[in-house]
Amino acid sequence: MKARIKWVEGRTFVGESGSGHKVVLGTGAGPDSPTPGPSPMEMVLIGTGGCSAFDVVHILEKGREAVEDCVVEMDADRADQDPRVFTRIHMHFIVKGRGLAAKKVERAVALSIEKYCSASAMLAKTATITHDFEVDDTSNTVD
Q1: Which tens digit of pLDDT belongs to each residue from 33-67?
Q2: DSSP code, position 79
Protein backbone atom coordinates (compact mmCIF):
# COMPACT_ATOMS: atom_id res chain seq x y z
CA MET A 1 0.00 0.00 0.00
CA LYS A 2 1.30 3.44 -0.86
CA ALA A 3 0.24 7.02 -0.24
CA ARG A 4 1.61 10.49 -0.94
CA ILE A 5 1.00 13.68 1.02
CA LYS A 6 1.71 17.07 -0.61
CA TRP A 7 1.81 20.34 1.30
CA VAL A 8 -0.32 22.97 -0.46
CA GLU A 9 -0.01 26.02 1.81
CA GLY A 10 -0.46 27.01 5.44
CA ARG A 11 -1.90 23.94 7.15
CA THR A 12 -3.43 22.45 4.01
CA PHE A 13 -2.25 19.17 2.48
CA VAL A 14 -3.50 16.87 -0.27
CA GLY A 15 -3.26 13.16 0.35
CA GLU A 16 -3.26 10.77 -2.57
CA SER A 17 -3.81 7.05 -2.16
CA GLY A 18 -1.88 4.51 -4.17
CA SER A 19 -5.08 3.91 -6.13
CA GLY A 20 -5.16 7.58 -7.21
CA HIS A 21 -7.87 8.99 -4.95
CA LYS A 22 -7.21 12.41 -3.46
CA VAL A 23 -8.42 14.08 -0.27
CA VAL A 24 -7.72 17.52 1.18
CA LEU A 25 -6.45 17.44 4.77
CA GLY A 26 -5.87 20.34 7.07
CA THR A 27 -6.38 22.27 10.22
CA GLY A 28 -7.14 25.90 10.82
CA ALA A 29 -4.46 28.29 12.00
CA GLY A 30 -6.39 28.81 15.24
CA PRO A 31 -9.37 27.35 17.11
CA ASP A 32 -11.86 29.56 15.24
CA SER A 33 -10.17 29.33 11.83
CA PRO A 34 -11.88 27.48 8.98
CA THR A 35 -10.42 24.13 8.02
CA PRO A 36 -9.79 23.08 4.41
CA GLY A 37 -10.74 19.47 5.12
CA PRO A 38 -10.70 16.85 7.84
CA SER A 39 -7.66 16.78 10.09
CA PRO A 40 -5.37 13.76 9.84
CA MET A 41 -6.78 12.38 13.11
CA GLU A 42 -10.34 12.86 11.86
CA MET A 43 -9.32 10.85 8.80
CA VAL A 44 -8.03 8.07 11.09
CA LEU A 45 -11.40 8.00 12.85
CA ILE A 46 -13.31 8.11 9.54
CA GLY A 47 -11.10 5.35 8.16
CA THR A 48 -11.79 3.18 11.18
CA GLY A 49 -15.54 3.65 10.79
CA GLY A 50 -15.28 2.89 7.09
CA CYS A 51 -13.23 -0.24 7.73
CA SER A 52 -15.76 -1.54 10.22
CA ALA A 53 -18.86 -0.58 8.19
CA PHE A 54 -17.36 -2.37 5.18
CA ASP A 55 -16.89 -5.50 7.31
CA VAL A 56 -20.42 -5.41 8.73
CA VAL A 57 -22.05 -5.05 5.31
CA HIS A 58 -19.80 -7.75 3.85
CA ILE A 59 -20.52 -10.22 6.68
CA LEU A 60 -24.27 -9.64 6.46
CA GLU A 61 -24.30 -9.95 2.66
CA LYS A 62 -22.22 -13.11 2.85
CA GLY A 63 -24.86 -14.48 5.25
CA ARG A 64 -27.51 -13.58 2.64
CA GLU A 65 -29.08 -10.94 4.86
CA ALA A 66 -31.11 -8.22 3.13
CA VAL A 67 -28.99 -5.31 4.37
CA GLU A 68 -29.95 -1.96 2.81
CA ASP A 69 -27.93 0.58 4.77
CA CYS A 70 -25.22 0.81 7.41
CA VAL A 71 -24.22 3.95 9.29
CA VAL A 72 -21.56 4.17 11.98
CA GLU A 73 -21.75 7.15 14.32
CA MET A 74 -18.51 7.62 16.22
CA ASP A 75 -17.50 9.53 19.32
CA ALA A 76 -13.89 9.64 20.48
CA ASP A 77 -11.56 11.21 23.04
CA ARG A 78 -7.88 11.94 22.64
CA ALA A 79 -5.05 12.21 25.13
CA ASP A 80 -4.31 15.68 26.50
CA GLN A 81 -0.54 15.28 26.01
CA ASP A 82 1.46 14.59 22.84
CA PRO A 83 1.22 12.26 21.13
CA ARG A 84 -2.52 12.93 21.29
CA VAL A 85 -3.59 9.36 20.59
CA PHE A 86 -7.18 8.22 20.80
CA THR A 87 -7.98 7.01 24.31
CA ARG A 88 -11.69 6.18 23.87
CA ILE A 89 -13.76 5.40 20.80
CA HIS A 90 -17.43 4.51 20.79
CA MET A 91 -18.98 3.16 17.60
CA HIS A 92 -22.77 3.13 17.20
CA PHE A 93 -23.97 1.08 14.21
CA ILE A 94 -27.36 1.69 12.62
CA VAL A 95 -28.12 -1.15 10.23
CA LYS A 96 -31.22 -1.17 8.01
CA GLY A 97 -32.68 -4.03 6.07
CA ARG A 98 -35.61 -6.30 5.46
CA GLY A 99 -36.04 -8.89 8.20
CA LEU A 100 -32.58 -8.41 9.68
CA ALA A 101 -32.07 -10.49 12.81
CA ALA A 102 -30.58 -8.49 15.67
CA LYS A 103 -28.38 -11.47 16.62
CA LYS A 104 -26.84 -11.55 13.15
CA VAL A 105 -26.17 -7.81 13.20
CA GLU A 106 -24.68 -8.11 16.69
CA ARG A 107 -22.40 -10.92 15.47
CA ALA A 108 -21.32 -8.96 12.36
CA VAL A 109 -20.48 -5.88 14.44
CA ALA A 110 -18.56 -7.92 17.02
CA LEU A 111 -16.61 -9.81 14.33
CA SER A 112 -15.63 -6.56 12.69
CA ILE A 113 -14.48 -4.82 15.86
CA GLU A 114 -12.84 -7.84 17.47
CA LYS A 115 -11.41 -9.74 14.49
CA TYR A 116 -11.50 -8.23 11.01
CA CYS A 117 -11.10 -4.43 11.15
CA SER A 118 -7.36 -3.70 10.97
CA ALA A 119 -7.88 -0.05 11.91
CA SER A 120 -9.75 -0.81 15.13
CA ALA A 121 -7.15 -3.46 15.99
CA MET A 122 -4.41 -0.82 15.76
CA LEU A 123 -6.35 1.82 17.67
CA ALA A 124 -7.22 -0.67 20.42
CA LYS A 125 -3.55 -0.47 21.45
CA THR A 126 -4.21 2.99 22.94
CA ALA A 127 -8.00 3.37 23.03
CA THR A 128 -10.83 1.61 24.75
CA ILE A 129 -13.20 0.77 21.90
CA THR A 130 -16.85 0.17 22.65
CA HIS A 131 -19.74 -0.42 20.34
CA ASP A 132 -23.46 -0.87 20.19
CA PHE A 133 -26.00 -1.16 17.42
CA GLU A 134 -29.57 -0.74 16.40
CA VAL A 135 -31.52 -2.53 13.70
CA ASP A 136 -34.06 -0.76 11.55
CA ASP A 137 -36.28 -3.44 10.02
CA THR A 138 -37.68 -2.10 6.77
CA SER A 139 -39.91 -5.15 6.14
CA ASN A 140 -43.05 -3.20 6.99
CA THR A 141 -42.05 -0.04 5.15
CA VAL A 142 -44.32 0.88 2.27
CA ASP A 143 -42.36 1.73 -0.89
Answers
A1: 888 999 999 999 999 999 999 999 999 999 999 99
A2: -
